[in-house]
Amino acid sequence: MGAHLLTEQHLASLAAERQITYTAIREGLYSESFPVYTAWFNIHNPMYEIKIPHSGDSPGIAWVKTDDLGEATAKIIFSYVKGSGVFPWVNRVMLLSGPRAISLRETVDILGRVTGKSIKIKEISADEYAELPFKEKYWYRGAILLKDYTSCWEAFKRGEAAVVSPLLGEILDREPEDFKTTVRGLLAR
């Protein structure tokens, strides 16, 4: 997300001028947000074909559960506030990602196993995606151009969402929840 990177750059420039100190937390893609990247797949009413501008091949996404991110962020803040004055993340960026990157094809396979359906990805163009019928239901008119949003799949192809860091597990002092477990929990709701 370009705006996030610009914010980090601005914070770093202010820190270089000794105007502030900062810690930026980069969160991986939320496991619970998978519908955004799977043509609004609904685990309670699954479709058999997911049309997206991506083949589903690797490198993939290091999905991460929002509850794990919230817990880790709280621990980071607590560590800073109650610490002994030494905080290793001053003027630095922290990456909190899921425990492993999985391709969109594997993501869809997991959705299929959890829902008991055989689901396939059909790769379509960005133009075709922008015209899918869900655009009026899920995207605010004028707030975002759906075709422009398809750049996220280009970022996936470049591996920008596949970066795995052990930091989240270290902060939690346990392995972060995997994507399949999170999806099973969502299905149970």
Automatic annotation (TrEMBL):
Stored InterPro entries: NAD(P)-bd_dom_sf, NmrA-type_oxidoreductase
Q: Which domain of life is it from?
A: Eukaryota
Q: Fetch the PANTHER family from UniProt.
A: NMRA-LIKE DOMAIN-CONTAINING PROTEIN, QUINONE OXIDOREDUCTASE 2
What is the protein's given name?
NmrA-like domain-containing protein
Its source organism is Aspergillus bertholletiae
